[in-house]
Please model this.
Amino acid sequence: MVFTEFEADIGGSQRKVISAAVTPARLSDGENGIALRKQRTLPFRVTRMWSAPAGHYPEQWYLVDPETKEVIYEGPKHEISIWGLQAPTEERDEISTPIDLEPGAYLIVFALGGVKGGELEIAAADYPSA
Model:
């Protein structure tokens, strides 16, 4: 699993994703991004590490077409507890229901309390059937 690290930004809301990864749920489907079969997603995980002021927040992520900015899929919405700026909080979702998706580049946009906390470029690619 390859995590993308983000640079610190002390301005603004201080709600930041400090690392994130999107990986197939099964190791046999690849190491990074979203594996596809017949333009449908195979199960995948979205993992992110939040740094934010202590409190309880609604948290969600979105799969976005980077060219049109269209939201293709809304990840599950959670109410999470953040320990504080010095204690990163990890969240992880596994998406097992297939999503119709073309191969290509996408963004995962992360939001905490309705505030964008980061984005991650990912690739969706065909995975050959066994």
